[in-house]
Amino acid sequence: MAKQGSSLIEIAVVLGVMTIALGIAVPGFRRVLDAYRVSAGRDAIVALAGRARAVAIAHGGADLTIHGDSGFARVEAPGATPELVAIGERYGVQLTIENSTRSVVTIHYDGIGLGRFANLSLVVRRGDAQARVVFSMYGRARRV
Q1: What percent of the chain has pLDDT over 90?
Q2: If we measure between CA atoms, which residue out of 20, 21, 19, 39 comes closest to residue 31?
């Protein structure tokens, strides 16, 4: 008569092998997830800078305010509804302003969409992953 099913020892061996394989794969998977969240947070900041420029052109000026400590970013313009994005909470990242003691920075865009600010680097971090957004003197955001 043919044997049907599996013995308890066979199941325990299979579970042990699966546990070892998962133990090896999970840290690598976590690093990949961190990298994806960091790049998504960086892209959200770049998109918000583009939105601020468009709102500035439509409404004669706008401000993009980034709170590094809380991870919030806000676009405000006269006559427009303020737009608040919780980048830190949404993507699980930390925002820091590089080479600065400030935790809040505001970029003022004029009516033609040019930002008036000195060069600024914003670092987006999660775990070991990090990415930068560099704002030029004229308020253009670039992914680094």
Answers
A1: 61
A2: 39
Domain membership of residue 35 (yes or no) is yes
Under DSSP, the state recorded for 65 is E
Is 3 within the bounds of a domain?
Answer: no
Residue 1 lies in a domain: no
> Residue type for 42, please?
R
Where the chain has pLDDT below 50, the residues are none
Helices (runs of H) and strands (runs of E) counted in the chain: 2, 9
Measured CA to CA, the distance from residue 43 to residue 57 in angstroms comes to 21
Based on the structure, what is the number of domains in the chain?
1
Distance CA 37, CA 33 (A): 6
Residue 126 lies in a domain: yes
Query: Which domain does 57 fall in, by range?
Result: 8-143
pLDDT at 57: 94
pTM of the predicted structure, to 2 decimals: 0.81
Q: In 3-state terms, what secondary structure has residue 29? A: helix
